[in-house]
C-alpha cells in the first residue's frame, strides 16, 4: 500500500482510516444541466414526456462517490514508508550546505541546489559513498521487517475492503492500489513440472549441463524452455515421483484453504453486507425521486340515459312515392277526363231542370 496511492484519492494517510473522497472526483464529470446528455429517451425526443431525462453514467459515478465517502473506518493499520536509495541519504545530509542561493537565482533556487548537489555527489570518492550505501541497505532491511509485520496485521476484512475499493476506483478512472499479499491465505502448491524444474535448478552445473546441454549457461527463459522439453520427453515412471509430491501437497492445501475460508467467512460477510447497505443508501440519495401523484376520487354524475328515437330514413320512401306518381300520371288524366264529362252532364241536367219551370210559366201566360 503505497503512500502515493493514499495521498492521491483520500484525505488521510491510511486507506483504512476515513475513505473520504476529495473534491477532485466531483470535478471530473460533467453535470447534466451543463452538457446535453447522450441518454435521451425516445419519448423525450418525440415530445411525449415532459420529465427530465436521466444521465445514467453520471448517476453511477455519484453513487460510487457516495459509497466511498460514507464508508466506515476499519482499525487503522498504517503501512511503513519505503526508504530512499543512497543518493537520497546524501541529499538529506548535505541539503543545508546549499541553503543560501544567489539573489539573481532566487526564482530557480530548487534547480540550482539540485545541480550543485549532483555535482558534489559525482565528485565524492567511492569510500565516502560507501557510508550512504550502508545507510540505505540498513534502512531497506528494517523496512522489509516492518512490512512483513504490517502484512501479518492485515485481517481478511481489510483485504476484502481493499478489493472492493479498487473496483470502485477503477470505475471512476482513478489510480488503483496494488493489493497487499495475504500472508494468512494458504499458498497453492506448484505443479509437478515445476517441482521437477526446482530440483533440476538445484543440481550442480556439470549435471545440469548433461541434462540440457549448452542452455545451462544461458538465460532463465532458455533454461526453463529446455527443462520443459526434457519434462515432456520423460516417461510416466520418471514423472511419478513429482506427481505424487504434487498430489500430497494439493490435498494438504485443500484442507487448509477450506479451514481458512470457514474461519474468515464471518468477517468477509460483514464487509459484503456493509457494502450492500451503503450502495442501497447511496442510490436512495442520488437517484431522482419520483413525484408522488395523489389519487383523487372522481365524482361520477349519474346520467339518465334517454332512449334515442331512431328516425327512419325517408329517402327510400320518397323515392318510391315519386316512382309511383310518375307511373300513375296517365291514369290520372283519364280519371280527370271522366270527371269533366260527368260534370258537363250534371250541368246539362241542372240547366234542363232549371229551364222546365220557365217553360211552364210561358205556357201559362199563353193561356
Description:
With 367 residues, the chain is an all-alpha fold. Among the domains are: 71-153, DNA Binding (I), subunit A, CATH 1.10.30; 186-305, DNA Binding (I), subunit A (Orthogonal Bundle). 62% of the residues lie in helices and 0% in strands. The chain contains 12 helices and no strands. The protein has helices at 3-9, 42-46, 56-69, 86-94, 109-123, 126-153, 156-171, 192-201, 205-212, 220-232, 236-286, 315-366. Helix 3 (56-69) packs antiparallel against helix 7, helix 3 (56-69) packs across helix 11 (236-286) and helix 4 (86-94) crosses helix 6.
Q: Keywords for this structure?
A:
single chain, 367 residues, mainly alpha, DNA Binding (I), subunit A, 0% strand, extended, disordered N terminus, HMG box domain-containing protein
Gist?
62% of the residues lie in helices and 0% in strands. It is an all-alpha fold.
Would you identify the regions where 5 or more consecutive residues have pLDDT less than 50?
A: 1-50
Distance between the termini: 172 Å
Write the CATH architecture name of the domain at 186-305: Orthogonal Bundle
The percent range for helix content is 55-70%
DNA-binding region: 80-151, 186-261
InterPro entries: HMG_box_dom, HMG_box_dom_sf, HMGB
Protein name: HMG box domain-containing protein
Domain HMG box: 80-151, 186-261
Amino acid at each position: 500500500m503505497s503512500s502515493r496511492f493514499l495521498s492521491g484519492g483520500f484525505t488521510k494517510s491510511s486507506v483504512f482510516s476515513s475513505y473520504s473522497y476529495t473534491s477532485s472526483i466531483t470535478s471530473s464529470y460533467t453535470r447534466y444541466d451543463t452538457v446535453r446528455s447522450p441518454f435521451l429517451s425516445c419519448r423525450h425526443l418525440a415530445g411525449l414526456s415532459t420529465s427530465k431525462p436521466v444521465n445514467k453514467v453520471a448517476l453511477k459515478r455519484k453513487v460510487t462517490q457516495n459509497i466511498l465517502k460514507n464508508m466506515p473506518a476499519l482499525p487503522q493499520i498504517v503501512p511503513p514508508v519505503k526508504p530512499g536509495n543512497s543518493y537520497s541519504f546524501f541529499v538529506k545530509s548535505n541539503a543545508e550546505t546549499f541553503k543560501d542561493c544567489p539573489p539573481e537565482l532566487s526564482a530557480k533556487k530548487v534547480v540550482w541546489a539540485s545541480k550543485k548537489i549532483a555535482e558534489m555527489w559525482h565528485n565524492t570518492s567511492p569510500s565516502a559513498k560507501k557510508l550512504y550505501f550502508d545507510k540505505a541497505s540498513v534502512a531497506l532491511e528494517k523496512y522489509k521487517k516492518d512490512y512483513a509485520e504490517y502484512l501479518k496485521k492485515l485481517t481478511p476484512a481489510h483485504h476484502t475492503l481493499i478489493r472492493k475499493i479498487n473496483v470502485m476506483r477503477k470505475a471512476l478512472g482513478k489510480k488503483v492500489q496494488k493489493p497487499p499479499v495475504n500472508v494468512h491465505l494458504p499458498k497453492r502448491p506448484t505443479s509437478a513440472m515445476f517441482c521437477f524444474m526446482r530440483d533440476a535448478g538445484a543440481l550442480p552445473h556439470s549435471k545440469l549441463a548433461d541434462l540440457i546441454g549448452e542452455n545451462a549457461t544461458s538465460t532463465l527463459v532458455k533454461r526453463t524452455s529446455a527443462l520443459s522439453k526434457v519434462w515432456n520427453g520423460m516417461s510416466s515412471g520418471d514423472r511419478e515421483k513429482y506427481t505424487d509430491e504434487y498430489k500430497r501437497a494439493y490435498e494438504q492445501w485443500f484442507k487448509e484453504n477450506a479451514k481458512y475460508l470457514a474461519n474468515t467467512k464471518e468477517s468477509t460477510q460483514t464487509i459484503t453486507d456493509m457494502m450492500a447497505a451503503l450502495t442501497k443508501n447511496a442510490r436512495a440519495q442520488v437517484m431522482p425521486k419520483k413525484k408522488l401523484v395523489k389519487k383523487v376520487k372522481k365524482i361520477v354524475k349519474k346520467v339518465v340515459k334517454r332512449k334515442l328515437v331512431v328516425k327512419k330514413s325517408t329517402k327510400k320512401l320518397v323515392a318510391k312515392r315519386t316512382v309511383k306518381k310518375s307511373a300513375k300520371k296517365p291514369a290520372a288524366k283519364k280519371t280527370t277526363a271522366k270527371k269533366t264529362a260527368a260534370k258537363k252532364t250534371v250541368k246539362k241536367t241542372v240547366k234542363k231542370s232549371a229551364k222546365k219551370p220557365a217553360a211552364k210559366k210561358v205556357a201559362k201566360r199563353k193561356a
